[in-house]
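Quick start: what a row looks like.
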Amino acid sequence: MRKVIVFFSLLCLALPLLAGCEYLGLGKKGHDDLEEARSFVRQRDFIEAEKSFERYLRRNPEGSARWEVWNQLVDIARDVRHDSRSAKELMEGMLVEYENNPYRLRVIREQLGAEYERSRNYERAINLYAALASDEGATEIQRASAYRGLARIYLRRLEFTMAEEALQACIGLGAESGLLAQCRYELAGAYMVMEKTDTSIQELELILQLDAQNPKNPQNPKNPKNPVDESIRVQAVFNLADALEQKGDKARARALFESIKESYPNSRVIEMRLEYLNKK
């Protein structure tokens, strides 16, 4: 009973548009509320949809569609009303409701951590990311995302050792090459911020080695499910060329820039870098 009271109090706080928390009326018109809300979403009448979703939650504390409804309310608050505070309050309520559901708890932690990170409440974001990163039942993708979130925050706070440890832990997950490349790419960037150019170059070289090991033919049975993303590969080549140019290895820098002339998003940038190198 105490949990129900706590949950209902959180729900009242999380739904700022409510005129007040009404008598629950368990199950009363719950189906109608849900269908009405879905109809309003299809019509893009999000104000009315929000009201109907809220009524569904109040009237159906054990409703089978509560997960859908919570997420719809978060989407409306965050993406339609651009109300980050309400979105976070809703997700905090979801943490209470789904505290015994590990799968859904992981999804909430990842999304809520990102929301707190965007609003610069770094301590709360770290708490959520750390819980997800240490959860051995979470997927590699979820844990890697959490470690990368931790690293971003630590870099913003100039806590370089903590950022490096988070990204090394990300690499240590043994993830498939796509995730591994993402973690190494961000670690290389962190080393550049830390003015460890040689170490950054080593990480970028490792990314290219990963890519070289991945056949591009999807029919090849050895092709990994998660190969190095092309955008990561191209940017890693660019950053490596830039670092080598700074180190004075202009010949290799030139060759690397040449290799991404057709694939880099802004070809004019590559042309300008090559023009500069060719003058030297």
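That is the whole record. The two ends are 77 Å apart (CA to CA). Residues 230-247 form the longest helix (18 residues).
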